[in-house]
Design a protein that fits this description.
With about 325 residues, the protein is mostly helical. The protein has two domains: about 90 residues, no CATH class; about 210 residues, MetI-like fold (Orthogonal Bundle). Helices cover about 70% and strands about 0% of the residues. The chain has 15 helices and no strands. Helix 1 runs antiparallel to helix 15, helix 8 crosses helix 9 and helix 14 runs antiparallel to helix 15.
Length: about 325
């Protein structure tokens, strides 16, 4: 187990370096520091002195990869790549282009993102599995056919429609919850009910249809026929045998999604005015704040790799036959 973890972590390092390098090339080769300075200064006729001053304040005046004017290790460390990209491995994200500390912003915005993501994830998983088990239990019936048609219809509708329609109906017409905003403490619940509900509904169609397919595949296995031959009731077969053995493919998608909960929901947070990591990323893209976008890309890559490792480890929990060498 320990050797496996060491190998997976060793594999993750070059992947993160590659993602970091590609992100750096996209931001600093396609757009030069001079181009970034002009976009941030926001004026048509900006002077070369103003551009140079802006670059020096943020460390963009250095060479990209190699500093021939420096000595020793400074030839590599006194570069934009080392100070802006390599430093992220030590979780030193620096400051955004408007001067705010990125690490402090991420820490402060993580709470609102988790307040939406965790209830949406847990309740959505419970509803999707329960609904798909119900369809599999009444397979080939009118309920099953109607449920599949409903799932396909829900999959075909954009999540943006659920957001706008939910805000109009629940918040504006019925006036049950605020249409947008966020508040701390217990008062946050009334701001989170609608976003969580929309998040569950928006993802129910695809999740339930996939889980239903997994359950139907397990139903035709030999161990299910053996259980039925021994007189085991159909509900026991579904919940004790089929559900348990279908957990391996379910965990593949579920465990990977857990670390990504920290990244927040881009659309939901933006439309509901929730100050989470999702809205923070959208605001950085709109403001062309490349320092924030690079940091969020790095964190997203790191969390995704962590999710893959957790997925492999979780296999040993639900299936003792799996052994990590």
């Amino acid at each position: 187990m320990l050797a496996y973890l060491i190998r997976r972590v060793a594999y993750a390092v070059p992947i993160l370096i590659g993602v970091n390098l590609i992100t750096f090339l996209l931001f600093f080769v396609v757009n030069t520091p001079d181009d970034i300075a002009r976009m941030q200064l926001g004026v048509k006729r900006v002077t070369p002195e103003a551009i140079e001053s802006w670059k020096r304040e943020r460390g963009y005046h250095l060479p990209s990869f190699y500093n021939g004017d420096a000595r020793g290790a400074g030839r590599l460390t006194e570069t934009i790549f080392f100070q802006k990209s390599v430093s992220m491995f030590a979780f030193e994200f620096g400051s955004s282009d408007d001067g705010r500390n990125i690490a402090r912003e991420i820490t402060g915005r993580m709470g609102p993102s988790l307040a939406i993501a965790i209830p949406t994830f847990v309740l959505g998983l419970f509803v999707a599995i329960s609904f798909s088990l119900l369809l599999a239990f009444f397979r080939h019936s009118a309920l099953d056919v109607g449920g599949v048609v409903l799932c396909v219809m829900m999959m075909s509708i954009s999540s943006l429609f659920y957001i706008i329609f939910g805000q109009w109906l629940v918040a504006k017409v019925w006036q049950l919850v605020p249409i947008s905003g966020f508040s701390g403490g217990l008062d946050a619940a009334r701001f989170l009910v609608l976003p969580v509900l929309i998040g569950i509904v928006a993802g129910l169609g695809s999740s339930a249809r996939w889980y239903r397919t997994l359950f139907l595949e397990e139903i035709h296995r030999d161990y299910v026929r053996t259980a039925r031959a021994k007189g085991v009731s159909e509900p026991v077969v579904m919940f004790r045998h089929v559900l348990k053995n279908a957990m391996i493919p379910i965990l593949t998608g579920v465990v990977v999604a857990i670390p990504l909960l920290f990244m927040g929901s881009l659309l939901i947070e933006s439309f509901f005015g929730i100050p989470g990591l999702g809205s923070y990323t959208i605001e950085a893209i709109q403001a062309q704040d490349f320092a924030v976008v690079r940091a969020m890309v790095f964190i997203g890559s790191l969390l995704y790799i962590v999710g893959l490792i957790l997925t492999d480890l979780s296999y040993t929990v639900v299936d003792p036959r799996v052994r990590l060498q």
